[in-house]
Amino acid sequence: MCMHDSTLECRPSLSPSQIADLRLAASQMSGPKRRAFEAEMAVKYCGGNPLLAETLFGWGRQTVALGLAERRTGLICLGAQSAFSGRKRWEDQFQQAAAALRQLADAHAQQDPTFRTCVTYTRLTAQAALQALREQGYSEEQLPSPSTMAEVLNRMGFRLRKVVKAKPQKKIKETDAIFDNIKKCTSASIRAAVSPVATTKPVIMIWGVRRSMSLAGSSMRIAPS
Question: Which of 169, 167, 170 is nearest to 113 (CA)?
Answer without folding.
Answer: 167
